[in-house]
Amino acid sequence: MALEAWFMDDSNEDQRLPHHLNPNEPVSLDYLSELGVLYWKLNPENYENDTKLGKIREARGYDYMDLLDLCPEKVSNYEEKLKNFFTEHIHKDEEIRYCLAGSGYFDVRDKDDRWIRIWMKPGDLIVLPAGIYHRFTLDTTNYIKLMRLFVGEPVWTPYNRPQEDHPVRKSYIKGLTHKFGETIEAHCE
């Protein structure tokens, strides 16, 4: 089954709920790709010996990996950490996550500043481009096991919104402007 994504409602209900619009507005992998979000479906039961994962890592230079279990029983200050993950931010580098078990949501902003919710389940590997506004939360299962991949030593510094003058954000916007052939800076204030 392919990755599921949709435009979100603006409800203030529990962040762990799906937040579908009514009617639901699915988002295609092609549209996510236009935003710079990359996706692969892999076999999470064989991640240690997966040749496809090995080829992706080699081609993209992901030479560092760690595993992260997120659930109330394994993370101290769980609610506080979840709140921090859900704060809208960018990174200087790509964010690469591979879901091995459980499920959760990555939310990204599109070119019109609308939230898109990406539901990660076992086998989903996504790459969020440097400079894209995003956030993360678990779903109502309250459990996800993720592989985090990095180029070189891990650097995970969030730059909370607004970051319109950050060079990585400017570069990302410039790339979107080129792809869509229009100025989108007005949507990103």
TrEMBL record:
GO terms for biological process: L-methionine salvage from methylthioadenosine. InterPro entries: ARD (IPR004313), ARD_euk (IPR027496), RmlC-like_jellyroll (IPR014710), RmlC_Cupin_sf (IPR011051). Its main location: membrane. GO terms for cellular component: nucleus; plasma membrane. Keywords: Cytoplasm, Nucleus. Gene3D superfamilies: Jelly Rolls. It holds the Pfam family ARD. GO terms for molecular function: acireductone dioxygenase [iron(II)-requiring] activity. Coiled coil: none annotated. It is a peripheral membrane protein. It is found in: Cell membrane; Nucleus. This is Acireductone dioxygenase (Fe(2+)-requiring). The lineage of its organism: Eukaryota, Viridiplantae, Streptophyta, Embryophyta, Tracheophyta.
